[in-house]
Amino acid sequence: MTKFAAERPYADPEIAARKLVQLAASIEPVQDGRIHMEKINPAFLHTLKANDNEFGAGIRYAVDQGWLELHESETYVRLAGKDLLPE
């Protein structure tokens, strides 16, 4: 019997980025609009069963698209603007 690997919906960086932005938008930001990675990460990795590579690629894609601003410490992001949120 051949076993096939399960499809990974977040293997596409754009799909991962859109989900990460949705998750970030659902979290109450702290000072200066900061959304800590420790709030986004568990929901993405454990609840959605994504992996670290998908998380990283999704964050980079969201930053490249201007949807998220990533702090140089990589401990938090900010939403770049509600009008920039992907649909």
**N-to-C order of helices and strands:** HEHHEE
The tally of helices reads 3
Question: Which percent range fits the helix content?
Answer: 40-55%
Overall number of domains? 1
Describe what you observe in this structure:
With 87 residues, the chain is mainly alpha-helical. The protein has one domain: Arc Repressor Mutant, subunit A (Orthogonal Bundle). Helices cover 44% and strands 10% of the residues. It has three helices and three strands; from the N terminus they run H-E-H-H-E-E. The protein has helices spanning 13-25, 37-47, 52-65, and strands spanning 35-36, 68-70, 76-79. The protein has a three-stranded antiparallel beta sheet with strand order 1-3-2. A hairpin with a 5-residue loop joins strand 2 (68-70) and strand 3 (76-79). The chain is globular, with a radius of gyration of 14 Å. The chain starts with 12 loop residues before the first helix and ends in an 8-residue tail after the last strand. The model has no long low-confidence stretch (mean pLDDT 88).
Provide the descriptors you would attach to this structure in a database record:
three-stranded antiparallel β-sheet; mainly alpha; 3 helices; Arc Repressor Mutant, subunit A; 10% strand; 87 residues
Topology:
Layout: H1 13-25, E1 35-36, H2 37-47, H3 52-65, E2 68-70, E3 76-79
Antiparallel strand pairs: 1-3, 2-3
Helix pairs in contact: 1-2, 1-3
Overview in brief:
With 87 residues, the chain is mainly α. Helix content is 44%, strand content 10%.
